[in-house]
Design goal:
The chain is of the alpha/beta class. It contains 13 helices and eleven strands. Strands 1-9-8-5-4-2-3 form a seven-stranded mixed beta sheet, sandwiched between helices. A two-stranded antiparallel sheet has the order 6-7. Strand 2, helix 5 and strand 3 form a beta-alpha-beta unit. Helix 3 runs parallel beside helix 8. The model has no long low-confidence stretch (mean pLDDT about 95). Pyridoxal-5'-phosphate (PLP) binds next to helix 4.
């Protein structure tokens, strides 16, 4: 079986370095808010071209803390893409803000800048752009709209570590960017972890404070904060893996290029081609009207696939009040998407086998 993702293989090249780093943390006797975190924050901020990085417990908290720091009045509206993972939207709801779902561009499947303005009201305070599948959103039109309507731009880059938009790294473009280092992400910890990057010093200070009970000076609480800290062990492990993010992303781009030039299946829609050196291909998402048949065919040929995502947010039980929304582009995407294996440990032989097998799908229909 070619697995969709084998984390054991993904982390194997770093085993010795991770062991050393882990032992160093173990022997230091200091496990929370220490030097390992400071070093990783500095390195990751520099990597993103951002002035500040604040390590937090996970990607969900990263978005939550950014929104909390902006302190919008209850009932404020936040523009979010309808086609995303639910974690992009939950923080809006947690803070008693109102998520306003916007349809994606049918080609990129990302937030469609042309469909944002019609959703902006006097209550709108922010836009959350989600760099889904490892591809940056079209940030120029989004930034322009935000300036025009005085909105904050927050990017959910949980799937896009290292991605570029017009020569700028994701993490340095929006007012604040949220990252997840969940083990399956392009930069993955060995547990839960996340970060916020920003060039806004005041915002950075506030988020730093909010992640630690709203406290900078011990036992003195300036805000009603939460406990969302990136621990020393995960920070040390992430620091070991960070220098290999670019080479791994490069390998992802090579595989995507092979898929894009090699796959030819009737009625199968490939993702749009890589703009040079921009996308980091967290996922390679194809579309086919006979999705179930495609998945079981590949499974019968020992190729494991995945679906990101099977059910849109506005159809989830958790969002019953949104069930009436009419979002046909989003719904069609969810009916058709299949994610092929794409990760840095796939061999050229695996990739050729996947292409060859896919190209015979039509004969099996
Ligand atoms: C993984 C992910 C998150 C959440 O990250 P966690 O670390 O699991 O909380 C948020 N948004 C997107 C798009 C993701 O893929």
């Amino acid at each position: 079986m070619i697995p969709f993702l084998d984390l054991n293989e993904v982390n194997a090249p770093y085993l010795t370095a991770i062991e050393e780093a882990s032992l160093r943390v173990l022997r230091s006797g200091w496990y929370i808010l220490g030097n390992e975190l400071k070093q990783f924050e500095k390195a990751f901020a520099a990597y993103c071209g951002a002035d500040h990085c604040i390590g937090v417990a996970n990607g969900l908290d990263a978005i939550t803390l950014i929104l909390k720091a902006f302190d919008f009045p209850e009932g404020s509206e936040v523009i979010v893409p309808a086609n995303t993972y639910i974690a992009s939207v939950l923080p809006v709801s947690f803070l008693n803000l109102v998520p306003v779902l916007v349809e994606p561009d049918p080609v990129t499947m990302l937030l469609d800048p042309g469909r944002i303005e019609e959703k902006i009201t006097e209550k709108t305070r922010a836009i959350i752009s989600v760099d889904l599948y490892g591809r940056s959103c079209e940030m120029d039109p989004i930034t322009k709209l935000a300036e025009k309507h005085n909105l904050k731009v927050i990017t959910d880059a949980a799937q896009a570590h290292g991605a570029m938009y017009q020569n700028r790294k994701v993490g340095s473009i929006a007012d604040a960017t949220a990252f997840s280092f969940y083990p399956t992400k392009n930069l993955g910890a060995l547990g839960d972890a996340g970060a916020v990057t920003t060039c806004d010093e005041q915002l950075a200070e506030k988020i730093r404070c909010l992640r630690n009970y709203g406290s900078v000076v011990r036992y003195q609480n300036d805000y009603q904060g939460i406990n969302s800290r990136l621990d020393e062990l995960q920070a040390a492990i992430l620091h070991v893996k960070l220098p290999f993010l670019d080479p791994e992303n490069k390998r992802r781009r090579q595989i995507a290029a092979r898929y894009l030039s090699g796959i030819e299946v009737r009625n199968l829609t490939l993702p749009p081609a890589d703009r040079p050196m921009e996308d980091v291909w967290h996922l390679f998402v194809v579309r086919h009207p006979k999705k179930a048949e495609l998945i079981s065919y590949l499974d019968s040929k020992n190729i494991q696939t995945n679906v990101h995502y099977p059910l849109p947010i506005h159809k989830q039980q958790a969002y019953q009040h949104l069930h009436g929304l009419d979002l046909p582009v989003t719904e069609q995407i969810h009916r058709e998407v299949v994610s092929l294996p794409l990760n840095p440990v796939l061999t050229d032989e695996d990739v050729d086998y996947i292409i060859h097998t896919l190209n015979q799908f039509d004969d099996h229909l």
